[in-house]
Amino acid sequence: MPRVPDLRSRWASAAAGLAVLASALVGCGDGGSTGPVALNWYNFPDDSGALQQAADRCGQQSGGRYTIHYNKLPRGADGQRQQLVRRMAAHDADVDILGLDVTWPAEFAEAGWIREWTGGMRERATADTLDAAVRTATWRDRLYAVPYNSNTQLLWYRDDLVPAPPRTWAEMLSRAQELADQGKPHFVEIQGAQYEGLTVWFNTLVTSAGGTILTPDAQAPSLGAPAVTAAGVMHDLATSVAADPSLPNQMEDQNRLAMESGTAAFELNYPFVYPSMKANQPELFPHFRWAPYPAVSADRPASVTIGGIDLAVGSYSRHPDLAAEATLCLRDRDNQLTNALKGGLPPSLRSLYEAAELTASYPFAADVLAALDSASVRPQTPAYQNVSIAVSHTLSPPADIHPEKDVADLRGQIEDALGSKGLIP
């Protein structure tokens, strides 16, 4: 992986500038204009209309003080990050609110690109918010973003093929073999392509086996026996009859389509698959059920990797006060509920999981909440992109994994990744 020049001095001066700019979240006024301030929000592209509705609603509720322009980032996470990195490295003052994947706050905070939430604003940003979601937005014990939505994976299965869901990976593979022997649909759909989804799969298995990818201080690889166990589970699936032939190329949406096609019995995926199955396969939908993510061992429940989006205020925004206020509006109760119902994204507000409006459309809300309450967080480090690439490249394709050798190789690659002094552009 190519190295880039040491950027610590730039990070330090950016952080110093940030401290001078604000002792709380905001440190300069937004007044002086005769009309509403136009705030730019950069976030993932949403086809449901929920994000645009939130932007319009908050602008209307501001009393004419601001409007929010929703700028759609590229569809792929790598493209989203690349555009934001380039804008912030150029000190783009037109970036007011950033929609960050939950793995990015540490990197952006360390670079001095996003502002810290402190005092009363921090209290408002974290009230009623899931603990694991707050952890994703925190770096070095400081809050740099506000959880917009959360996400987690469940086990989805067909109860016409499997009356009771498997509790462990070994049990699931055994059920798949039985179904294959009977000539019935038997694939287990999961993200096996060489991308972030593969890293998420590995991280979930490692934490479910009682380990972590990095040490608690994020300064060195941890791995060890749990990582070897996790890599073994991935290899076992990939070399079994349960493996979809397309496993090495599959991402979340391919998993969804495969399950809807009727060739699979199991799917590890996010809740967006539920409304999709309802709309696209009404004949299969009555048999489409959910259960907790399978455990690695029967004596330890799974710890599923949390996903989602965190909203941050850009350090170079001309209107940090209004951007902070708008951020809190964008992730308020009404907008999170709309985002869940229209966009299929689980909320980060705990109280919504008991709301009748949500549970009517999310009959699995309690299972999602339980998974989020026991969730694991991906390694928090400014070098996360390097770490993730090392994991997904080493463990791809899953059928070629040699658990002990690959974990040993991965340990060295992660050490190199953590030693990189710059950001991947």
Description:
Helices cover 43% and strands 13% of the residues. It is α/β, with parallel strands linked by helices and 425 residues long. α8 crosses α16.
Record the strand order, biggest sheet: 2-1-3-11-6
Q: What are the low-pLDDT stretches, counting only 5+ consecutive residues below 50?
A: 1-32, 421-425
Radius of gyration: 22 Å
Along the chain, the helix and strand elements come as HEHEHEHHHEEEEHEHHHEHEEHHHHHH
Overall, the morphology is: globular
Helicity, in percent?
A: 40-55%
Beta-strand segment tally: 11
Largest sheet: 5 strands, mixed
Query: Distance N terminus to C terminus?
Result: 12 Å
Provide mean pLDDT, rounded: 91
Structural class: alpha/beta
Please report which band the strand proportion falls in: under 5%, 5-15%, 15-25%, 25-35%, 35-45% or over 45%.
Answer: 5-15%
Number of helices: 17
Highlighted features:
single chain, 425 residues, alpha/beta, 5-stranded mixed β-sheet, 4-stranded mixed β-sheet, 13% strand, globular, disordered C terminus
Quick structural summary:
The chain is α/β, with parallel strands linked by helices and 425 residues long. The protein contains 17 helices and eleven strands. A five-stranded mixed β-sheet has the order 2-1-3-11-6.
Topology, please?
Elements: H1 8-21, E1 37-43, H2 50-61, E2 66-72, H3 77-89, E3 97-101, H4 105-110, H5 119-126, H6 131-136, E4 138-139, E5 142-143, E6 146-151, E7 154-158, H7 169-181, E8 187-189, H8 196-208, H9 225-238, H10 252-261, E9 264-269, H11 273-280, E10 288-291, E11 307-313, H12 320-330, H13 333-343, H14 356-361, H15 365-373, H16 384-394, H17 403-419
Parallel strand pairs: 1-2, 1-3, 8-9
Antiparallel strand pairs: 3-11, 4-5, 6-11, 7-9, 7-10
Helix pairs in contact: 2-13, 8-9, 8-16, 9-17, 16-17
